[in-house]
Amino acid sequence: MTASGPTSVVIREVGPRDGLQGEDVCSVADRVTLVDALLGAGVTHLEVGAFVSPKAVPAMAGSDEVIAAVGRPAGVVRAALVPNARGAELALAAGIDELTVTVSASAVYNERNVRMTIDGSVGAITRICALAAGAPVPVPVDVVVSCAFGSPYEGDMAPRGIDDLNRRLLDAGATALTMADTTGMATPRLIEGLLAVTGTDVGLHLHDTRGTGLLNLYAGWQAGVARYDTSVGGLGGSPFAAGAAGNVATESAVALFDDLGVHTGIDLQRLLDAAALAERLVGHELPSRLAYAGPRTRLAGER
Amino acid sequence: MTASGPTSVVIREVGPRDGLQGEDVCSVADRVTLVDALLGAGVTHLEVGAFVSPKAVPAMAGSDEVIAAVGRPAGVVRAALVPNARGAELALAAGIDELTVTVSASAVYNERNVRMTIDGSVGAITRICALAAGAPVPVPVDVVVSCAFGSPYEGDMAPRGIDDLNRRLLDAGATALTMADTTGMATPRLIEGLLAVTGTDVGLHLHDTRGTGLLNLYAGWQAGVARYDTSVGGLGGSPFAAGAAGNVATESAVALFDDLGVHTGIDLQRLLDAAALAERLVGHELPSRLAYAGPRTRLAGER
Prior knowledge:
The structure is a homodimer. Chain A is of the alpha/beta class. Chain A is built from 12 helices and 8 strands. The first copy, chain A, has a single domain, classed as Aldolase class I (TIM Barrel), CATH 3.20.20. Chain A has an 8-stranded parallel beta sheet. In chain A, strand 2, helix 3 and strand 3 form a beta-alpha-beta unit. The model of chain A has no long low-confidence stretch (mean pLDDT about 95). Chains A and B meet through helix 8, helix 9, helix 10 and helix 12 of A and helix 8, helix 9, helix 10 and helix 12 of B.
């Protein structure tokens, strides 16, 4: 009946970075505990921090210490967000496995978010990619293209324009591209429409601002995408309306993929334990409904 | 790419019944105001109340007065839930257009919910259908089969068993059948699996307990289903974890169908106004993220 997507997918857990960056500061020790819990659940790819101004984003201060404490678990890709060449140097010095950088498909959004033109951001990304490629062991750079499914300032984004930007980013040295729905404007139609132009060798980074994150992830999977950014507990949002803008909850993605028979390598119960830990660390309820209700296989009266 | 479903669907709005029944009592006047707002948005099929014990469900007391006040708007089907023949008599006397009745596919759930065996419920439904068919103008009876995608007591439900129950219900006089995911246990795989056995001439009534309501609705649409129960604002749940078990929000369904080019006849903006009204009436935030964030077409700085 329904189109079938890939039989195996990679989940990049972004809770410790995209999730925590807007929260009150968690100690380095707490962040390491969360990362360890995620690794214990079978997560093999995750953003552990960001090398940004600690003044602008205090929650990401000490990312080098997090990386050092996490160490180099076998088979795990530890990524960090960097905004510029200086951040890339610091991340590379800290021994990171992957850099993530962002540029917005929306000129206005890019200007407001990082006070640069898109050309300016592509220039910065070119320098970051050169640094990453020149490291003793070259480090991959995943460019996350924000507002790929719509901008709160300009509305719909033309898939051709996104694809042109993607080509420039590959020319700049990007080793992977991720299409981000930054403000929850994606729909299954727009997911399919963009992927038909860009091809499906991209990641999807979907926010749940309008309650459509999991739906869009499913549409992406049906279309053939095998890489997803998600955050444990839906970290980055809040069940209280004002902040309901987190990523798709990792446990919701894993439960869906488990049910579809799609391999993620992640253990749902241990992931739910990590979500409970994340909730304790940030000190408020997270938006993930699955984390509250428990998996469908947990019957009445069971834990 | 993706399977395409029906180009037109019917949304049965259940907020004034399934949504409000668990809330503090709203006055008849407030309930009529909500129904009128929904009708103003283009809703043409809705549960306006229930003829149940006002002691057991005080929020549904005065459903006859709601029906009288709403009147008989042209082209609108006003439904009411009835648990037994006595309720059916009252609903028919009040001039209802459709009866909804429930039976659970889960024997344990049925026993706990209505203290009857499934056979007992089928017997009651038989009597209700006879009353409805014998009315001066025969009234249709939609039987909502709860726990059709899993029971919190027995786990998975066999599609063959559901289909057998459906046949008994049609023999009992049911004019329509709705498959309900009462506790949010459905998945796209289970939706497709059940519909492959029952056929797609059923309604879907999906709860968002695990954040999968809209996803499951989309899977149902892809499989060919053209009838959905939804509740404005996601009424029946709460953004606070303990009660996050409402129906799929009507506005989320309408926004999705609008984007897919599927006709619902409902105006999204006026529906969002009705959701805001519903939130004021119940006095707490509703779980609908779309109601908070606004439609994707509303750009930054716009209302």
